[in-house]
Amino acid sequence: MEEKLTIVVVGASRGIGKEIVNRLASNSSYTILALSRNLDRMENNFSSFKNVKCFSFDLSKNDVREQASHIFNSFKSIDILINNAGKLINKPFVELTSSDLSECYQVNAIGVMQTVQAALPKMEQAHIVNISTIGGFQGSVKFPGLTAYSTSKAAVVSFTELFAEEYKDTAIKMNCLCLGAAQTEMLEEAFPGYEAPISAMKMAEYIVDFALNADQWMNGKIIPLSLSTP
Ligand SMILES: NC(=O)c1ccc[n+]([C@@H]2O[C@H](COP(=O)([O-])OP(=O)(O)OC[C@H]3O[C@@H](n4cnc5c(N)ncnc54)[C@H](OP(=O)(O)O)[C@@H]3O)[C@@H](O)[C@H]2O)c1
User: Fold this and answer.
1) Nearest C-alpha to atom 11 of ligand 1 is from which residue?
2) How does pLDDT run across 136-149, given as a tens digit for each residue?
3) How far is the CA of 86 from the centre of ligand 1 (A)?
4) What pLDDT, on a 0 to 100 scale, did the predictor assign at position 217?
5) Which atom of ligand 1 is found nearest the CA of 131?
6) Measured distance CA(59)–CA(28) in Å, rounded
7) 168-183 pLDDT, tens per residue?
8) Rg of the chain in Å (alpha carbons)
9) Phi, psi at residue 54, to the nearest 5°?
10) Which atom of ligand 1 is nearest to the CA of 83?
11) H or E stretch at 70
12) Pocket test residue of 186, 205, 206, 223 for ligand 1, highest count of atoms within 8 A of CB
């Protein structure tokens, strides 16, 4: 018999998150909670799946923990949480405003931590997967203009190691994938005309398999998932 799992995907309205939900939803024994700001878009995307529940959720607000708790309270347990949402600002360093910096940090780092805080009361044995970027991975290839984005994503890398240490005696595991370029609206908006070597669907295939299985082998690990060198 298939294992019944409740899986939360944050940032599910488009791009990689949408493909993660599409892939998970084909298994009817999974219940998927799809979260992002654009509720209409998610309801439209996933209307053919009975096992996908869509919720409006905004990581940029200062009540993320309360928003998330409110959603999670209707569910008995959470087995997998994929923190996939992201905000990218591509701007020369000297032009970054205070709100550019704080918005990126709120959505990409603080909001992720607050979502995890809200999920913990529902977790016994669970895998949390944080989606960062190869630009947030030490020693990797870097891109000018991505200071706000990549440093906030680097904070999630550090959070992954710190959380895993603090929860190492529990059955809650956290790992982080640092993605290289995948063809999505985010990439097209930030770097018009750039062609990524991987589709959103292909990236989602790896992430879903990782989220379902990798906690058997690793905890607190930061994995670069990229075809670029270094
Ligand atoms: N594509 C790449 O090349 C690439 C490379 C490295 C890392 N990544 C990372 O991979 C993840 C997915 O990227 P993607 O390319 O699929 O991006 P995308 O197409 O822009 O999708 C991002 C998702 O995050 C959601 N989101 C954005 N701001 C939010 C907020 N304030 N509250 C809640 N949800 C929010 C968006 O939904 P709403 O707008 O409906 O809220 C959307 O569903 C991101 O974390 C990104 O940083 C992507």
Assistant:
1) 84
2) 999 998 999 999 99
3) 4
4) 98
5) 45
6) 28
7) 999 999 999 999 999 9
8) 17
9) -105, 140
10) 45
11) helix 64-72
12) 186
Residue closest via CA to ligand 1's atom 45 equals: 86
**What pLDDT score does 230 carry?**
82
The CATH number of 5-225, from 3.40.50.10490, 3.40.50.12160, 2.30.30.520, 3.40.50.720, is: 3.40.50.720
Query: Global pTM?
Result: 0.98
CA of 165 to the centre of ligand 1 (A): 27
In angstroms, rounded to a whole number, what is the distance separating the alpha carbons of residues 222 and 220? 7
Tokens 């940032």 -> residue: 11
User: C-alpha distances in angstroms, 104 versus 8, 34, 58, 218?
Assistant: 21, 21, 13, 28
Establish how many alpha carbons lie within 13 A of residue 203's alpha carbon, considering only the half-sphere containing its beta carbon. Answer: 26
Q: How far is the CA of 211 from the centre of ligand 1 (A)?
A: 17
Q: Report the alpha-carbon distance of residue 134 to residue 9 in Å, rounded.
A: 20
Residue with tokens 């690990």: 221
Residue 202 main-chain phi, psi, to 5 deg: -70, -40
Tell me the percentage of the chain whose pLDDT exceeds 90: 97
Q: Which two tokens stand for residue 186?
A: 């985010």
Residues contacting ligand 1 via CB (< 6 Å)? 11-17, 36-38, 57-60, 84-87, 107, 131, 133, 179, 181-182, 184-187, 196, 200
pLDDT digits (tens, 9 = 90+) for 120-131: 999 999 999 999
Residue 118 gets which letter from DSSP?
A: H
